[in-house]
Design goal:
The protein has about 300 residues and is of the alpha/beta class. The protein has eleven helices and seven strands. The protein has two domains: about 5-130, no CATH class; about 215-295, CBS domain Like (Alpha-Beta Complex), CATH 3.90.1280. Helix 3 runs antiparallel to helix 4 (about 115-130). The longest helix has 30 residues, at about 155-185.
């Protein structure tokens, strides 16, 4: 994913997607910086709900990528747990629906009102509804992927939901264009969300694990409940990807990948769990050298 900023926050690596920074800069120059702050506040509570849910499942976050309409997290302990992915994904939209309900309740008793209050309600409604679309990288796509993964595998479920991400993005953009051209109704958020969805879905699809990568997840499921498996040692060059390395893994045992440079000098090691985390985070096409730097 293209990023423009990288920093650490409490031991967690944070990267900012190019589209996110572009949207912030545009909002400042357009004079909408206060509206942008309100959007960022709603997004922060949305992502905090995800974070609280994943900690409830006993997981931890090692990296966060800030997207225009949310974030992608690299989670330790997610692999092989589609039920957990569904529970974590649904927490974000539920948070926005709760804020929306509280806002409406307070407005009904005379508390609040006006432009900023209405905007707060609209933002939370839009975030909740958009994120429930069955399309990656939105939460709805992750919810559906959690169910599909149990029958068709993570790789195929990811591919299907990413394709629907492109479809829904085109639909949202098309509806906005139709309303603007034929009825002079200008809705910025579905148009912007549609464009962002198409771009991020295409980027995500480039990193989707191919069928061979599904072996990384099936191996763990096959060995669950059995005696400790043997350790498999695999060597790979720094420029190779999890996709390429997965083709050389056997059908049983857990792997330790020895990462070498072109002169066959050892740069470091990666575990099979780290490969699974990279795949789950949509980094199946990242180079092993990059994964080593993220350790």
């Amino acid at each position: 994913m293209p990023t423009t900023l990288r920093f650490e926050l409490g031991g967690t690596r944070v990267t900012v997607h190019l589209l996110s920074l572009s949207a912030m800069v545009w909002a400042v120059f357009a004079g909408w910086w206060r509206e942008m702050l309100l959007v960022l506040g709603a997004l922060a509570t949305h992502e905090m709900a995800h974070y609280l849910a994943l900690t409830g499942y006993g997981m931890t976050v090692t990296q966060i990528e800030l997207l225009p309409l949310g974030a992608r997290m690299e989670i330790v302990g997610m692999s092989g747990r589609p039920d957990a992915e569904t529970g974590i994904a649904v927490a974000g939209p539920v948070n926005n629906f709760i804020l929306l309900a509280l806002g409406l309740l307070l407005a009904s008793v005379g508390v609040g009102g006006g432009y900023w209050w209405d905007l707060f309600l609209q933002i939370n409604l839009a975030l909740a509804m958009l994120n429930l679309l069955p399309a990656l990288p939105f939460d709805g796509g992750r919810i559906v992927r959690g169910y599909l993964a149990e029958t068709v595998g993570v790789a195929e479920a990811s591919r299907l939901m990413t394709n629907w991400g492109v479809v829904w993005g085109i639909i949202l953009t098309g509806i906005s264009a139709y309303l603007a051209l034929c009825h002079h109704i200008y809705l910025w958020w579905p148009a912007g969300a549609g464009v962002i969805l198409v771009i991020t879905a295409i980027e995500y699809s480039a990193d989707i694990p191919a069928n061979s990568l599904g072996n990384l997840f099936r191996r763990e499921e096959r060995m669950r409940g059995r005696p400790p498996p043997p350790i498999e040692h695999v060597s790979a060059y720094e420029h190779e990807t999890p996709h390429a390395v997965s083709r050389r893994l056997g059908s049983c045992g857990f792997a330790i990948i020895w990462v070498l440079d072109e002169d066959l000098h050892l740069l470091g090691t990666l575990t099979e769990e780290e490969l699974r985390r990279a795949v789950t985070a949509g980094r199946a096409s990242s180079q092993l050298e990059d994964l080593l730097r993220r350790q």
